[in-house]
Design goal:
Blueprint lengths: L4 H29 L9 H12 L4 E5 L6 E3 L4 E5 L7 H18 L3 H29 L3 H39 L5 H40 L1
Parallel strand pairs: 1-3
Antiparallel strand pairs: 2-3
Helix pairs in contact: 1-6, 2-3, 3-5, 3-6, 4-5, 5-6
The structure holds zinc ion.
The site of zinc ion has 4 residues, from helix 3 and helix 5.
């Protein structure tokens, strides 16, 4: 492999944004993980109370690791990591966000359904894309190479569809935390900071995905001229 300066032009801004987002989410989470809620509730208790308030029924499971929390629409469970079950503003914010996804699922929220629907195609495209692109360039077969580029585009579409899904889940979380009274006053502001920082990592991932796509398109244009 030769070193391509053009790659750095496309890769560096996305990489810098992703690293900054990671730092931001880690430091914000660490700060609000130290602040217990005034109501004295932990993540699991918050899940129970929020589900009762919204008349929502999903399972609550534990998952190892830090910030591995997610909602699984097939199993209808939220999985909470070790850091999200303590009594802290950060824990309760994360739990409310995951339940926001469960609420989206229960209400057939369009972008969530769309994202779920394209997952198998995106997974196939993610390993077929590089193969077809490299193979296409090697064999000087532009149709094959462009098909690879379309696969990269699918990853970018997935990252973009993820944005409204994540923003909406956080919006629902803050609304439900406020209306249920689980968090009060400046605790709501803290929860918003935690969720905004988490959303930033999805924005960074989308930016990286689009920049990668643009890089491969630029390679295609270059290979036509050579
Ligand atoms: Zn989410």
């Amino acid at each position: 492999m030769y070193f391509d300066p053009l790659y750095m032009v496309f890769a560096l801004p996305g990489l810098a944004l992703a690293m900054w987002a990671q730092w931001k989410v880690k430091s914000t989470f660490a700060h609000y993980a130290q602040i217990p809620t005034r109501r004295g509730i932990n993540g699991q208790e918050a899940a129970r109370q929020l589900m009762t308030a919204q008349n929502l029924r999903v399972g609550v499971e534990r998952i190892p690791g830090a910030m591995t929390d997610h909602y699984d629409p097939r199993a209808k469970v939220i999985r909470l990591s070790d850091t999200s079950v303590d009594n802290s503003v950060a824990s309760v914010a994360v739990v409310a966000h995951e339940l926001g996804h469960a609420e989206q699922d229960a209400q057939n929220y369009g972008p969530l359904k769309l994202r779920g629907g394209i997952v198998p195609a995106v997974q196939a495209a993610s390993w077929l894309g590089p193969l077809m692109f490299m193979g296409g360039l090697f064999l000087a077969n532009r149709t094959l190479a462009w098909t690879g580029v379309v696969c990269f585009a699918m990853a970018a579409v997935f990252a973009l569809v993820t944005l409204p899904v994540e923003f909406d889940a956080s919006r629902r979380a803050l609304r439900n935390l406020e209306s249920s009274g689980l968090l009060v006053g400046d605790e709501i502001i803290g929860a918003k900071k935690v969720l905004d920082a988490a959303a930033l990592t999805y924005v960074a991932a989308a930016a990286q995905s689009i920049l990668t796509l643009l890089y491969y398109v630029s390679l295609m244009n270059r290979s036509r001229r050579e």
